[in-house]
Design goal:
Strand content: 25-35%
Helix content: 25-40%
Low-confidence stretches: 121-126, 131-138
CATH architecture: 3-Layer(aba) Sandwich
Strand order of the largest sheet: 5-4-3-6-7-9-8-10
Number of helices: 8
Shape: globular
Oligomer: single chain
CATH superfamily: Vaccinia Virus protein VP39
Structural class: alpha/beta
CATH class: Alpha Beta
Largest sheet: 8 strands, mixed
């Protein structure tokens, strides 16, 4: 396996010890989420390589950017990626399971933004790699745990941003409603103009409002990217 880092415009990611490598989902989420001027604290749940937390550091002036990672190898690599970036003084990674983190931190920290590219494959598709399964399968971080935990950690103005499969949108939003988390913005993502919607980018808040919905297409055809997609990820990808 190549040990070469994945280079972005303002940082690079070493990922040879991470089960899940840099993918479109994480970069999309990190580029898409609205970062308000008064966003002072951010939590990246299941940080993996640390890419979303690093994107948050590049895009914002938030002084507190925490990340959580349960897999030891990925945690150690995320810490190194943070330390080698220009924002190491604002980034901190915890080696913890999310439920434990919530129990310990709910009276200590409140976050203006919680962001997560959560695992969403179910146990029917497990592989021989325990680390890869942990990174990819929902039983490592069930939606219910993520949503319930967020209610304990969000500030009064806090928001939760996720990317999930379109097929799980309805169940996710119904569950979010059970915890008084309400959709503010949903972007439906499709690979090409003729392909099915595969992903939903969802921003939740603590107050019910009219939901802003739109659609993002990544490519016109293979490697021919759409203007909205290029505009979104241009601050990060070298060749955009």
């Amino acid at each position: 396996m190549s040990s070469k880092p994945f280079k972005f415009k303002q940082f690079e990611i070493h990922q040879d010890r991470c089960a899940m490598k840099i993918g479109t989902d994480s970069v999309l989420l990190g580029a898409w989420v609205d970062l308000l001027e008064d966003t002072d604290s951010i939590l990246d749940v299941g940080t993996g390589t640390g890419v979303i937390a690093l994107m948050m550091a590049q895009r914002s002036s938030a002084q507190l950017i925490d990340a959580i990672e349960i897999d030891e190898n990925a945690y150690e690599q995320a810490v190194e990626n943070f330390e080698h970036s220009d924002w190491g003084d604002r980034l901190f990674c915890y080696h913890a399971e999310f439920g434990e983190f919530v129990e310990e931190m709910q009276d200590e920290e409140k976050y203006d933004l919680i962001i997560s590219n959560p695992p969403f494959y179910n146990s029917d598709y497990k592989t021989a790699s325990e680390a890869r399964d942990m990174a990819r399968f929902q039983d490592a971080l069930p939606f219910q745990l993520l949503l319930e935990g967020a209610t304990y950690l969000l500030s009064e103005k806090g928001r939760l941003a996720v990317i999930i499969p379109k097929s799980q949108e309805q169940d996710f939003l119904e569950l979010a409603g059970d915890f008084n988390l309400f959709p503010k913005k949903i972007t439906y993502v499709k690979g090409t103009p003729t392909s099915e919607i595969k992903r939903c980018l969802i921003l939740l808040g603590l107050e019910p409002i009219e939901v802003l919905k739109d659609e993002l297409t990544i490519e016109h055809e293979r490697h021919q990217y759409t203007t909205p997609y290029e505009k979104l990820v241009a601050p990060f990808y070298l060749k955009m």
